[in-house]
């Protein structure tokens, strides 16, 4: 416990001494975490761009809205039936997120008017796992926002960290030169002045 406390104390002291470096590393780490977060879903969204389609039928649909302090959100819960190679499957995902969710009234109205019970729809399915399907493929809006924001944080964090690291290396190099100059032997004044030399010679030769 004492070792952990000592390590945390040292880390806190270093963080106070190197705020810019810690800030840059924190931004880079936050950006990296946002990219990794829900990484599997983003991979599936990209992969779905190459998925084939088949015709399906909407079995059930439930559309509703939710209001909050920031505005109104629109949702749609759908179940559909489709067939691949004479085998029937059931799906419930609108996109890679799951249910349909949007803040756009026009988008909501379009989906509600075309994906009613009994309507025929195009179903995108994974050719390697036909039970995995969705009605809208590609990268979703919130994924684009997350990718853009996380990439921005990562780039700013890496750039800040590298600049601060370079500045600190230059400061250490200059400080090292300054210390070397201080350690260099200084020229000392000779104990033998001209007067003392003449006095010594006079005494030696008896002048």
Task: Briefly say what this structure is.
With 207 residues, the protein is α+β, with helices and mostly antiparallel strands. The chain is built from 6 helices and 6 strands, in the order H-H-H-E-E-E-E-H-E-E-H-H. It has a domain at 41-146: OB fold (Dihydrolipoamide Acetyltransferase, E2P) (Beta Barrel), CATH 2.40.50.
What does this structure look like?
The protein has helices at about 1-15, 20-35, 40-45, 105-115, 140-185, 195-205, and strands at about 55-70, 70-85, 85-90, 100, 120-125, 130-135. Helices cover about 50% and strands about 25% of the residues. Mean pLDDT is about 75; it is low at about 1-10, about 10-15 and about 185-195. The N and C termini lie far apart (about 80 Å). α2 runs antiparallel to α5. The chain has a domain at about 40-145: Beta Barrel (OB fold (Dihydrolipoamide Acetyltransferase, E2P)), CATH 2.40.50. It contains 6 helices and 6 strands. By secondary structure, it is an alpha+beta fold. β5 (about 120-125) and β6 form a beta hairpin. Strands 1, 2, 3, 4, 5 and 6 form a 6-stranded antiparallel beta sheet that branches.
């Amino acid at each position: 416990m004492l070792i952990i406390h000592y390590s945390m104390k040292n880390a806190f002291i270093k963080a106070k001494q190197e705020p810019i470096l810690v800030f840059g590393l924190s931004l880079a780490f936050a950006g990296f975490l946002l990219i990794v977060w829900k990484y599997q879903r983003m991979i599936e969204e990209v992969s779905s761009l190459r998925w084939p389609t088949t015709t399906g039928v909407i079995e059930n649909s439930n559309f509703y809205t939710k209001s909050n302090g920031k505005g109104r959100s629109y949702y749609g819960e759908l179940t559909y039936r489709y067939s691949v190679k004479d085998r029937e499957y059931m799906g419930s995902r609108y996109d890679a997120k799951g249910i349909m969710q949007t803040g756009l009234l026009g988008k909501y109205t379009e989906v509600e008017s075309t994906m009613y019970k009994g309507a025929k729809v195009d179903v995108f399915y994974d050719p390697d796992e036909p039970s995995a399907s969705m009605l809208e493929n590609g990268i979703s809006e919130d994924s684009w926002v997350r990718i853009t924001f996380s990439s921005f944080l990562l780039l700013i964090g890496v750039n800040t960290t590298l600049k601060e690291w370079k500045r600190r290396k230059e400061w250490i190099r200059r400080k090292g030169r300054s210390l070397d100059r201080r350690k260099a032997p200084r020229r000392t004044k000779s104990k033998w002045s001209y007067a003392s030399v003449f006095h010594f010679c006079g005494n030696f030769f008896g002048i």
